[in-house]
Design brief:
alpha+beta, Uridine Diphospho-n-acetylenolpyruvylglucosamine Reductase, domain 3, seven-stranded antiparallel beta sheet, Alpha-Beta Plaits, binds flavin-adenine dinucleotide, binds 2-acetamido-2-deoxy-beta-D-glucopyranose, five-stranded antiparallel beta sheet, globular
């Protein structure tokens, strides 16, 4: 048994089979059908399996039934039926999560939100837009194409924007534009009893507010455990006048990370600064047919006016050179730039391609910037000592990096070594005043670490909030917080 007392990501379910299955009876099914139509209710095995897992190594936990509501009224009506019959509710965006968040660990009803895919209120002059939960980040940017505006938060996958709000996602642009936390202005949420709340007041979208508790922030990162997000109002940005990207190679990890820290300390408003270690750049070279030197590397991007770009680039170049970095290799035209960032976004698949047949598990600790060189250097030593494949790719400008652990799921001894490694890494981050998860969330695998991170009083406050909003523990039960089962 892996992991001893702490729940292992990949271990068997903590519940006995008799506790599973929640008995979605015929009465409930016909109530569902009368709400969202025959088409909107699926019991098919393939559909249930598809909705019982995300892109993580957590095993599939299919729900008893999947419903496909078309509007908030249907979501609310369906939730009321679930509430009456005490059925678990699991929201499903696009299933690209990395922490097992959509698994129906207690059975129940998966709410797939993909049929709600309208972009609702675009206010270009105010730089905001409201979208339904089926809209993905790429779909929104395609919709905005001719407006001169864009939404910058960019996880590697084409995730749903409400799913991104639910996990407090970020990506390569966060160092300049912030994460979902900074970019969600309002949410419409269906609570466990079917009631509908607008976290900043219905239709409101001021740039700032001091109006009471920040309910919006409470639901950002709640991973479906407090309610179903049915609309999100997002901040938009003007597409910068000019953008250039560059690649720079370094003699050591320390030199690359020191350059990142110094560039930020110098006040360069860098848009993207991504670190790839030698193993990762090698994997990307192979997967994306590139030919960068196999050494610690930074991918950088600068946004601004032509004039401000010159200044930013000059400072960054001076800093990288003083740390022994190579000359920048430029990607000025859109095609080369896109190729570069596509390679970065494909890092997950590039890592998987290192060992065909294996699965990937991504760590995502985040530490204060000044601690970053030390934690990456120690982590690389740990990987080598323990004979593990874990290319490192990091949003280093935020102090956040991923070890993409490529592991043979059929080799328990190796799985065990990976598990112990990820725990050591998380504890190393906690000891450096950081967090066990910078952007992927807690899901199933980090519940014990969350307790260490928050401490008993913090966890108790989280529990009380959960009990207040969802007294019957119906919303995505078993995620984030561990509950003693009666
Ligand atoms: C190749 C790859 C690269 C990735 N890179 C990044 C990255 O750089 N940064 C990053 O942050 N993440 C990254 N991710 C993880 C993933 O894309 C994000 O976690 C994303 O926010 C998940 O969105 P989703 O719609 O797919 O959510 P899902 O996987 O469907 O769900 C995730 C969780 O949110 C809940 N949820 C989903 N929709 C709603 C809703 N409408 N209301 C309430 N709860 C909801 C679910 O119940 C679940 O707990 C990556 C994933 C992959 C596969
Ligand atoms: C409240 O939280 C949201 C989402 O995290 C954030 O965008 C907003 O700025 C916060 N508001 C205040 C006043 O802090």
């Amino acid at each position: 048994q892996m992991g001893g007392a702490s729940p292992c990501c990949w271990g068997p379910s903590p519940l006995s089979p008799s506790q599973q299955g929640s008995g979605v009876g015929d009465g409930v099914l016909s109530a569902f059908r009368s709400i969202c139509g025959e088409e909107g209710v699926s019991l098919g095995e393939a559909v249930r399996e598809q909705h019982g897992k995300d892109e993580s190594v957590h095993r599939c936990r299919p729900p008893d039934v999947v419903v496909f509501p078309r509007c908030v009224e249907e979501v609310s009506a369906l939730a009321k039926v679930c509430h009456k019959h005490r059925l678990p509710i699991i929201p499903f965006g696009t299933g690209t999560g990395l922490e097992g968040g959509v698994g129906a660990v207690k059975g129940g009803v998966c709410f797939s939100l993909r049929n709600m895919e309208q972009v609702l209120d675009l206010h270009p002059e105010d730089f905001d837009v409201t979208v339904e939960p089926g809209v993905t980040r790429k779909a929104l940017n395609a919709y905005l194409r001719d407006t001169g505006l864009w939404f910058p938060v960019d996880p590697g996958a084409d995730a749903s924007l409400c799913g991104m709000a639910a996990t407090s996602a970020s990506g390569t642009n966060a160092v300049r534009y912030g994460t979902m936390r900074e970019n969600v202005m309002n949410l419409e949420v269906v609570l466990a009893d079917g009631s509908i709340v607008h976290t900043a007041g219905k239709g409101r979208r001021p740039r700032k507010t001091s109006a009471g508790y920040n309910l919006t922030n409470l639901f950002v990162g709640s991973e479906g455990t407090l309610g179903i997000i049915t609309k999100t109002t997002l901040r938009l940005y003007g597409i910068p006048e000019a953008m250039v990207s560059a690649v720079c190679s370094f003699p050591s990890v320390q030199a690359a990370v020191d350059s990142t820290v110094q560039t930020l300390q110098a006040g360069v408003p860098i848009a993207r600064i991504e670190f790839l270690d030698d193993v990762m750049i090698d994997a990307c070279n192979r997967f994306s047919s590139l030919s960068y030197p196999v050494t610690p590397t930074l991918f950088l991007e600068f946004h601004g006016s032509e004039q401000s770009l010159q200044e930013q680039v000059k400072t960054a170049e001076d800093i990288t050179q003083s740390n022994g970095g190579s000359d920048f290799q430029w990607a000025r035209d859109t095609e080369t730039r896109n190729r570069l960032w596509k390679a970065r976004h494909d890092a997950w698949y590039a890592a998987l391609a290192l060992r065909p047949g294996c699965k990937a598990y991504s760590t995502d600790v985040c530490v204060p910037l000044s601690r970053l060189p030390q934690i990456i250097v120690e982590t690389k030593e740990d990987l080598i000592e323990n004979r593990l494949t874990g290319p490192i790719a990091g949003h280093v400008g935020d102090g956040n990096f991923h070890c993409l652990m490529v592991v043979d799921p059929n080799n328990p001894e190796e799985m065990h070594r990976v598990h112990l490694f990820t725990e050591r890494l998380a504890r190393r981050a906690l000891a450096m005043d950081g967090t066990c998860t910078g952007e992927h969330g807690v899901g199933l695998g980090k519940r014990a670490l969350l307790c260490e991170e928050m401490g008993p009083v913090g966890i108790q406050v989280m529990r009380s909030l959960k009990d207040t909003l969802d007294p019957n523990n119906l919303m995505n039960p078993g995620k984030i917080l561990q509950r003693e089962e009666p």
